[in-house]
Amino acid sequence: MGLLSKDALENLKKYAYKGVDKSLVSKYVLNPFWTWFVTLWPLSVAPNTITLSGLCIVLFNFGTIFVYDPAYLAEKGGVDVPRWVYFSCGVGLFLYQTFDAIDGKQARRTGMAGPLGEMFDHGCDAMNTTLEVILASQALNLGRSWWTVASQIATLANFYLTTWEEYHTGQLYLAEFSGPVEGILLICSIFIITGFYGPSFWDQGIISLLHLTNVPFINQLPDLPLNDSFMVFGAFGVCFNVLSSYGNVRRAMRAAGKSTTRPLLLLLPFLVSASIQVFWLIHPRYDTPALIQSALFVPFLCAWGLQFAHQVGRMILAHVTRGPFPSWDWMWVWNMVFAVDANLPLLFDRPSIIQTDAKWRAAVVYLTLAVSFFAYARFCTLVINEITNFYGKKGEDGVWKDAVPDEKRKT
């Protein structure tokens, strides 16, 4: 059975992208550059090809990091990653941002703008989010730590909020300081600084670095390491985005004469998903290292990221088809089963039934990664097939019969 009903497919005809970008950096610096850069691409290049090229660059950076630091320990584990790797991560992320920005411009140049393009764009963004969390945490010398988990939660929360906001308002809002613009440039800067000074640079106390240790009152404050300070800054950013996104949703709901509090319930799916993942991570193990301290930490984060990409993909699909908001995910049951199994010593003072040793725990984590990948891949395949089949149907004579106008069918 297909994912989309006939009414949902018909609603695709009514979809039109709307966005608001209040960033001064985007308006006066990046957008003129993007407008010029897109002209370098032939009209024969599909917008989604540009988007995918950007993601491939990030995947290359991801692979490069783990060639030199396969255990994900950075300098805290005595691993010396060549400095050029961090420079390449900074350049790669900037190129990803650039490609991500011009794919829409290329779509308008070629007449290929449409809902499938937006879904593909958001899907790549969702996958890139977790990849950059892992890469940036390594560059910040955080490695296997709860700070990396906190960074994952904060970054995914920002993305979820933006998608949740777009679903309810019909517009993609980018504030004066947003993740896709200033946030990415900030992470690029982190990579470049790490390239010059190494990951241990971020272990310095912020007060010591600024030579404020002798300044009254300031010297009484905790001398937080730079990497920890960056995480605190991110927490404030999440709080600001929650208030900003809800303000936009509240205004949209009031204008439509709908409840202004009901949309808040649709934030619960993210909280449920993140809580299950954290519950799995906190499991007590006395015979093997805790999951967060083991080599399984990165595969675990990748599985989490794929599940999140699937979650927001369904949200975007609901947005472009005007369907109901997806509030349930069967992967929660999968994750909860193994989270409870891992925590049986804590909950009932009895050993795990499935994850009885390190070998079985590794099998479960990698199986979860595989299931997450195939579930998301299946979703993408079904959506692409159903939408493209709706936009054009091939007759017995081999000729495409238009279901919608030609410029829409090109999508």
From TrEMBL:
Its main location: membrane. The keyword Ligase does not apply. It is a multi-pass membrane protein. It comes from the Eukaryota. The chain crosses the membrane at residues 50-68, 183-202, 230-249, 261-282, 288-309, 330-348, 360-384. It holds the Pfam family CDP-OH_P_transf. GO terms for cellular component: endomembrane system; membrane. It comes from Roridomyces roridus. Keywords: Membrane, Transferase, Transmembrane, Transmembrane helix. GO terms for molecular function: diacylglycerol cholinephosphotransferase activity. Its cofactor is Mg(2+). Belongs to the CDP-alcohol phosphatidyltransferase class-I family. The keyword Manganese does not apply. It catalyses: CDP-N,N-dimethylethanolamine + a 1,2-diacyl-sn-glycerol = a 1,2-diacyl-sn-glycero-3-phospho-N,N-dimethylethanolamine + CMP + H(+). This is diacylglycerol cholinephosphotransferase. It is found in: Endomembrane system. It is an enzyme of class 2 (transferase). Its EC number is 2.7.8.2. Pathway: Phospholipid metabolism; phosphatidylcholine biosynthesis; phosphatidylcholine from phosphocholine: step 2/2. InterPro entries: CDP-OH_P_trans, CDP-OH_PTrfase_TM_dom, CDP_ALCOHOL_P_TRANSF_CS, CHOPT.
